[in-house]
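Async update (no meeting this week)

Hi team, since we skipped the sync, here's where things stand on the single-chain job. The sequence we agreed to prioritize is pasted below, unchanged from the tracker. I ran it this morning and attached the output directly underneath so nobody has to dig for it. Comments welcome in thread, and please keep replies under the output.
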Amino acid sequence: MRNKAGFSVVEVLAVVVIVGIVATLGVVGYNRWKQAEVAKDTSTDSSQQVASAPEVKQTSDLDKAATTLDSTDFGDADATDLDTQGNSF
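Output:
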């Protein structure tokens, strides 16, 4: 009589397929989480920079405001990213 030691090819193949599916779901979930974190960091940075923009109360404050805004690094933000009213520039 034959001794049945080990696993059949079908059993090993089933385990490999299941591990592949679980790994795929994990990678997709990680990528979504990473994109959400990057989007959250980008929006937080832009809103903090806009909030810290100097307030212009008099015409003489324009030079100071322009200098401050010129030195501010908005990263990859486009003008449309900072527009909250839906206007296009």
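Quick observations from my side:
The chain is about 65% helix and 0% strand.
Residues 9-67 form one domain.
Reply here if anything looks off.
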